[in-house]
Structure formats: C-alpha cells, structure tokens
C-alpha cells in the first residue's frame, strides 16, 4: 500500500481534520507502543499499520 492511499483511507475514516491528530497522538500497543507516525517512521509498512488501525478502531469492512 502506498502512503498516499494510507492517508486517504485515514482521512476517509477519521475525517481530514482528525486523521493526522489521531496518527500523531494515539499510542497503540499493537504497534509496539507507538503512534501511527512513529510506526511508519520506524519502518512499518503502511499496509500493516492500516491493518492495526482497522482492528483497533473497528473500521468497517467496506473501508478496509
């Protein structure tokens, strides 16, 4: 998954104004105690981060 697609999906689910705030502030144990930004910056693949976000935040199947 390309980062542009990842961020489009984040904006679609959380809204364009909140997606970056969520990605910057919400720490998830499933990402090794990292935020979305920290996980991506440490080398996690965007598709794997998106899967974690979907699981943790109960993203509906049609948005996955």
Largest sheet: none
* Alpha-beta content class: mainly alpha
Q: Beta fraction of the residues?
A: under 5%
Low-confidence stretches: none
In DSSP terms, counting alpha (H) and pi (I) runs of 4 or more, how many helices?
Answer: 4
Q: How far is it from the N-terminal to the C-terminal residue, by CA?
A: 12 Å
| Number of DSSP strand runs | 0
Order of helices and strands: HHHH
Cα-atom Rg, whole angstroms?
10 Å
Shape field: globular
Mean pLDDT over all positions:
96
Helix content: 55-70%
InterPro entries: DUF3046 (IPR021408)
Organism: Streptomyces muensis
Protein name: DUF3046 domain-containing protein
Pfam families: DUF3046 (PF11248)
Question: What does the model show?
Answer:
It comes from Streptomyces muensis. InterPro entries: DUF3046. This is DUF3046 domain-containing protein. Pfam families: DUF3046. The chain is mainly α. Helices cover 61% and strands 0% of the residues. The protein has helices spanning 3-14, 16-25, 36-41, 46-56. The protein is globular. The model has no long low-confidence stretch (mean pLDDT 96).
Attribute tags:
64 residues, mainly alpha, 61% helix, 0% strand
Indicate the topology:
Elements: H1 3-14, H2 16-25, H3 36-41, H4 46-56
């Amino acid at each position: 998954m390309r980062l542009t697609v990842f961020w489009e999906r984040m904006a679609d689910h959380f809204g364009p104004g909140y997606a970056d705030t969520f990605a910057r502030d919400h720490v998830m144990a499933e990402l090794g105690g990292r935020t979305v930004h920290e996980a991506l910056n440490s080398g996690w693949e965007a598709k794997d981060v998106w899967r974690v976000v979907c699981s943790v935040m109960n993203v509906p199947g049609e948005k996955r």
